[in-house]
Amino acid sequence: MGLSDDEIRDLYDRHQTRWEKLDEWLDETEPKQITNADVAAAMDVSPAVATRYIQAHLDVSRRADSPTLYQLKRKGRTRTAVWQVHNRLAGQLIDRTLYEDFRTRILRAYVPDMAKLAQVTPRRRKRCERRIDYAIHNVVGAVAVLVDDALDGDEE
Description:
By secondary structure, this protein is mostly helical. Helix content is 67%, strand content 10%. The chain has helices at residues 5-15, 18-29, 36-43, 47-61, 88-120, 125-150; strands at 33-35, 70-75, 82-87. Strand 2 and strand 3 (82-87) form a beta hairpin. It is elongated.
């Protein structure tokens, strides 16, 4: 016949790396912060092994092409360290979508109007071109800064 869902999950769980297990647990539980004790209890391992889970996750998440869903940032030192959990992909995808949507809106709505105005009134052509350039390069950038500043304290 084939493997049951439980058998497939069991095989998958046995072949996951430490960072993958921790990343999956973070995705399932969505904690704002974790400690070594939290990881040890969740994974049913000793605190020393929990440290290796966290370290493996940190090693992978620091790579430029990291596949991790979450970024951990330490507050405190030694055994009392508290790790802040940040959803890396959700924020990036939402921000990228917002900026692309905003840029597309400018290109589809504002730019044709300015181009038409430049065509109808040739002496205003340079002014229209400057406005188009300003809208594309500066307004989208300003929106990015405003969104980043507004959401700066969200993850803490």
